Amino acid sequence: MIISFENVSKTYDGKDIALVGASFAVPQGAFACVIGPSGGGKSTVLKIIAGITDASSGVVVKPKLVSMVFQTGALMPWLTVMENIAFGLHGKGLSMSRIRSTALKYFKMLDLQGLEGKLPRDLSGGQRGRVGIARALAVNPHVLLLDEPFSALDPQMTDELHKDIIKIWKETGKTIVMVSHSIEEAVALSTMVILVKDYAVKKVFDIDLPRPRHEHALPFMREVRQIKREFFK
Ligand code: ADP
């Protein structure tokens, strides 16, 4: 297992509860979606995996190198698209040509051709999202963490990015952990869904549907219904 939580709890300042007794495991190469109502502990799970915050108790196993993509892409506004993608590669002792070729590889993988010299302010929300993902992948992390990366996008763009992220997942074999508040999105993308609610991991669902997945197919709807039952319990 590349990630595992065993009876993990988190309180802030010793009083504000964020997570209680969470246990789950994510196998190498999985696409895990963390879903649940707002304020239930999803971001806390992600932050502990990212090493942004530590668990207060319990045992956490996580890989050394994780890369996080935030909602807005969190790009450097003064850097061009290509410079943003290369950003994390500086200071690692790589040659300039190696940095350039690595950035170019992920630039192409995310279909950003024609945008290399543009600044973030000149990009659409979807394009910014793709640059954020390319930048995160460029450092070759063991796990890619996505914090509701599609929540600010319109449905068509979300659809395109869903296809991109599945393509990347297949091409790179990376383990992905993504926070989402959409059950449909989680079922469309993932191999497992971790339901986090009331500061606890309530249930883990294995999603074993063939791809491409269609929202109106019966097995898809059955899966969504089953998760909804637990979500709204
Ligand atoms: P979600 O991502 O599901 O919306 P969070 O993990 O952000 O939920 O939050 C879970 C709980 O932990 C919430 O009640 C929230 O108020 C609390 N919490 C999160 N971060 C902090 C913090 N830095 N200080 C105090 N309480 C926090």
Q: What is the strand and helix layout of this fold?
A:
Layout: E1 3-12, E2 16-26, E3 31-35, H1 42-50, E4 57-61, E5 66-69, H2 81-86, H3 96-109, H4 125-138, E6 143-147, H5 155-172, E7 175-179, H6 183-189, E8 192-197, E9 200-206, H7 218-231
Parallel strand pairs: 3-7, 3-8, 5-6, 6-7
Antiparallel strand pairs: 1-2, 1-4, 8-9
This protein binds adenosine-5'-diphosphate.
Adenosine-5'-diphosphate binds next to strand 2 and helix 1.
| Tally of helical segments | 7
How would a crystallographer describe the biggest sheet? 6 strands, mixed
Cα separation of the termini: 29 Å
Number of separate domains = 2
User: If you compute it from the alpha carbons, what radius of gyration comes out, rounded to the nearest whole angstrom?
Assistant: 18 Å
Major sheet strand order: 5-6-7-3-8-9
Shape label: globular
Q: What's the name of the CATH homologous superfamily of the largest domain?
A: P-loop containing nucleotide triphosphate hydrolases
Class inferred from helices and paired strands: alpha/beta
Write down how many β-strands occur, each being a DSSP E stretch of 2 or more residues: 9
What is the string of SSEs from the N terminus onward?
A: EEEHEEHHHEHEHEEH
Chemical compounds bound to the protein: adenosine-5'-diphosphate
Topology-level CATH name of the largest domain = Rossmann fold
